[in-house]
Amino acid sequence: MSVSDAPAASAGAGEADLPGSGPRGVPGWLRGIGRNGFAVLGLVPFFAYTVVFLGLPTASVAINAFRTAHGTWTLHNISLSFEGIYRDAFITSLKVALTTSAIGVVFGGLLAQAVLTTRRNALLRRVVTTASGVFANFGGVPLAFAFIATLGSTGMVTRMLHSLGFDLSSTGFSLFTFSGIVVVYTYFQVPLMVLVITPALEGLRPQWREAAEGLGATGAAYWRHIGLPVLAPALLGSFLLLFGSAFAAYATAWALTSGTVPLVPIKIGTLLSGNVITGGENLGKALGFEMIVVIAVAMVGYVLLTRRVSRWLR
User: Fold this and answer.
1) How high is the pLDDT of residue 307?
2) Whole-angstrom Cα distance, residue 162 to residue 285?
3) Ranges of the chain whose pLDDT falls below 50
């Protein structure tokens, strides 16, 4: 190669090394797709499933919530969903979700911490974690039947208490009322809290407590000034997750009360089945759209708080 050809060769080599360029002029982003093509291809079924079974139904609910039975646009469905029995259903659903979420956070958090304090007993921890996973996913008609057979009017525990001279109904408790739904929902809220909060509790450094005790802090002072402030985002995020779980539950409440307790999911099911109002499907979709908004806000808050917790405990 002659001396005159050297600058041209070096210039060509420099162009090939430029960021974003590739051999024979192939853009860098296109080469990246080629390298990760199989990985992207593997995600196609997931995205297709999400679009077909989540995206399209959500879009249909959101659109039809603002339409009449004749297809014209309207806000009547939304305004009607905040009146009368539908407003009461929203209030009751919020009460159930807030109450059971608070109970789940308190007792689930205490149970998880109690298990983690016995770090040497790995068997106990595995048993509690496995049982929590089973109980948190046990719901619907089987859960309602289990509680009816236990705490119903002729349930096993009810008859046992009656034989001991204690009438459970005299306390005002009934499994088929608001208080009964709270008890049943607590059954899966507490173990769900155990599963959610355990990683955050594990992230608390033992050195923090040792340093606090070395400075003369009591156990209560440690939790007040160090433990709870660090866990606050995780606790709030767990509360939002439990809130969404209880707010959207349907099958258990329906099988337990047959709709006598007004809840938003039950009202939606009744409207869509056409048992009350003929042509009220779009009103049911308006209620569904409002539920989607509430759950979306709760889940976005949960994700943001979870990210903050991961930065704290990294």
Assistant:
1) 82
2) 45
3) 1-4, 6-21
Instruction: Provide the residue type at 13 as one letter.
Output: A
Q: Which residues contact 297 (CB under 8 A, 6 or more apart)?
A: none
For residue 264, give every residue at least 6 positions away whose Cβ sits within 8 Å of its Cβ, in sequence order, or none: 86, 89, 90, 93, 247, 287, 290, 291
Residue 256 · residue 175 · CB < 8 Å: yes
pLDDT at residue 210, rounded to an integer: 87
Give the CB-side neighbour count of residue 183, counting CA atoms within 13 A: 16
Residue whose C-alpha is closest to residue 111's, from 184, 186, 190, 189: 190
Answer yes or no: are the C-beta atoms of 271 and 283 closer than 8 Å: yes
Residue 35 is predicted with a pLDDT of 60
| CA separation, residue 74 to residues 4, 60, 96, 203, 292 (Å) | 77, 15, 31, 51, 19
pLDDT of amino acid 272? 84
Q: Determine the distance from the C-alpha atom of residue 115 to the mean position of all C-alpha atoms in its chain, rounded to a whole number.
A: 23
- Distance of alpha carbon 60 from alpha carbon 37, whole angstroms: 32
**Residue-level pLDDT at 207:** 87
Q: Give the integer Cα–Cα distance in Å for 180 and 186.
A: 10
* DSSP sequence for 127-188: HHHHHHHHHHT--HHHHHHHHHHHHSTT-HHHHHHHHTT--GGGGT--TTSHHHHHHHHHHH
Question: How many DSSP H helices and E strands does the chain contain?
Answer: 16, 0
d(CA 116, CA 199): 10
Tell me: the pLDDT tens digits for 253-299?
999 988 889 999 999 988 888 655 666 889 999 999 999 999 999 99
Report the amino acid identity of residue 132. S
Distance from the Cα of residue 201 to its chain's centroid:
19
